[in-house]
Structures are given as C-alpha cells and as structure tokens.
Amino acid sequence: MAKAKIDAQKLRQRDAMVLPFKRNIASLSIRLDKWQSSARQGGSLAERTEAQTLARDAIAEVDTQLVKLADVKFPAETQDKAFAGDLETMQANYSRIRQALKAVAG
C-alpha cells in the first residue's frame, strides 16, 4: 500500500477516535456559556436553580468523558505525537470545563 494512502488511513482512524470527544467539548462549552449567563445575579431564582442543577449533571458527564478518554489507546503500530497532543488538549479542556461547571453549580 502506498505511504500516502497509509498515512491518510491513520489520519481517518485518529479522527474517528478523537472527533466524538471534540464534539462533546464543543457542546459542553456552549451549554456552559448559557448556564453561566443564567446563573448570574441578573437571572431569576428559577433560572439560577435550573442552571445549577444542569451544571451538576454536566459535571457527571465530564467525569464519564474523562474516564472514556483515559481508555483511548494509541494505534499499536504507531506512537502518533499529534494524537497524544490531541488527548492532552482534550483532557485540559475537560478539566477547564469541569472547574467552570463547579463554579456554576455552587
């Protein structure tokens, strides 16, 4: 098999493993922004309470995603540095989001 074809195949493999986590991070970031706005003092008590409840639920979701992310393994034939960098970045993003969710949850 040609080297370019093998490289493209490895890239697709890596993207297939990483993309669901990246989508989840984007979704959590969007929801976090909404909840932070609702939790501010300008919102009603009901909005703040709902934002706190949703943030607590999202913390459990983040913890689950971090466990799944820890279970992701490198392809056996390669130690892809870009893949390792993606994993570290995603772990940092999840940690940042978790801290912000804890602040919203109170």
Fold and architecture overview:
With 106 residues, the protein is an all-alpha fold. It has three helices and no strands. The longest helix is centred in the N-terminal third of the chain and has 37 residues. The protein starts with a helix and ends with a helix. The model has no long low-confidence stretch (mean pLDDT 84).
- What structural class do you assign from the helix and strand content? mainly alpha
| Topology, number of strands | 0
Helix fraction, binned, reads over 70%
Residues in β-strands, percent: under 5%
SSE arrangement, N to C: HHH
Largest sheet: none
Observed structural traits:
mainly alpha, 106 residues, 3 helices, 84% helix
Question: Quick summary of this structure?
Answer:
This protein has 106 residues and is mostly helical. It contains 3 helices and no strands.
Task: Describe how the helices and strands are arranged.
Elements: H1 3-39, H2 45-71, H3 81-105
Helix pairs in contact: 1-2, 1-3, 2-3
